[in-house]
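Re: that chain you flagged

S.,

Sorry for the slow reply, it's been a week of failed gels. I finally had a moment to sit down with the sequence you sent. For the record, here it is as I used it:
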Amino acid sequence: NDRILDDRKHLSRIAASVAAGDKLSWVDSIWLQQLAEQYEVDWDEDKLPQVVSTLTNRVDIIPVPLVLVQAAKESSWGQSRFAVEARNLFGQHCFHQGCGVEPDQRPSGAKHEVRRFKTASESVRSYLHNLNTHDGYADLRRIRQRLRENNQDVTATALANGLAFYSE
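Prediction finished late last night. Pasting the structure tokens below so you have them in one place:
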């Protein structure tokens, strides 16, 4: 979240420049392009206000209590096979052979695996990225955006309603 907040502050400065009609510096333009790629936003220099708006919606925190509850639930308090063998606290999937751990009860014909991470921290970063980019969590991002627009705190309780897509 600290890294995300740092990026959000930088993005906020750029957003103000774009809104004022200022031309971006070369450094800010490159940084913004890289951020757009990282957050899976189509880059179009001719549509900077839309790019910045989409990024502002995506580059934001997920409250720590929500992350902790989700990790505890998905990993059986860190005791699940996937937490232990793959350091995967959130049950995130991957889709090429060898990328993770094959579920014991994977449906016939399914190809997914439960993604393997080098560290639990990497699993958390991937989870935050997933919530901030995947179309299935657009509701979560809309809730968070409304909270921001109304100067309300971004809380786990408020965002939990945007996680309906998360689990089977």
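What I noticed first: Residues 104 and 113 are 10 Å apart (CA to CA).

Talk soon,
D.
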